[in-house]
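DM from R.C. (forwarded with permission)

"hey, sorry to bug you on a friday — could you get me a structure for this? deadline for the figure draft is monday and I only need the backbone to look sensible"
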Amino acid sequence: MVRLGKKDLFPIGMGTWHMGDSSSKRNQEIEALRYGLESGIEVIDTAEMYGEGNSETLIGEAIQDIKREDIYLISKFYPFHAKEPELERSLENSLKRLGTDYLDLYLLHWKSSTPLEETIESLEKYVKDGRIRAWGVSNFDAADVEEMWKLKGGEGCTANQVLYNIASRGIEYDLLPLQRSKSLPTIAYSPIAQGDNIIGNHVLQEIAKQHNATVFQIMLAWTIRQHDVLSIPQSSDKKHIQENIDAASIRLSEEELQLIEAEFPAPARKMPLDII
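My reply, with the result:
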């Protein structure tokens, strides 16, 4: 389990980027989201940016008959909506599309030109009036997090969502240790690295074989190996959802972790924050 704020959650959620954009895939995507929720996944991650609201609308349809307290909804707002009255309008539009009266977590999608302290003040207001349960940030590097913590209300941040996978380990040099120093959870987007040189890697393939798993499942299990990272892989069909759920049960041995380390080493210096 991974703790976000006051809630313990299954460590793998459902990412919804590019979902809701195709009418031909709509029923399949709705079935996948419902299957995930019925099978123990709680977190659904979305953003107003995803299809300019299409993803949120799809999710709203998928969850309408499911108990709201069984779902942990995360959405994100554009940086150019990070001040009033745009921020409140964004929140209300997201709530309407999702068919709910509150978000569990509301994230600033990436750094904004609006002073962060001003954005935090609004977010704290939404926490108090119950429209969001918590707020956080996304695509913040170590210096950004340190700057945030110095601001009034900055330590109220519940999570930072960043790109993190077996082939993109830059956050391990400074950001991840920094966040761990204050128990700030990390949400990993794109936790499954792409590319033939990764998928076809002989070490990953052999480890997958030993666990009767896929390479994708090994990569996903690797991201959650230290129990303070929530991973949100793409979740557009039931087969992949079940594979994601099963990946949470994979325990990589120390020897396997060392083999992976040799193939995909941790950074030895500060790296630019990877962003998609």
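R.C.: lifesaver. The chain has a mean pLDDT of 96.
me: no worries. The beta strands are 2-4, 7-9, 14-15, 43-45, 72-77, 105-108, 135-138, 160-163, 186-189, 229-232.
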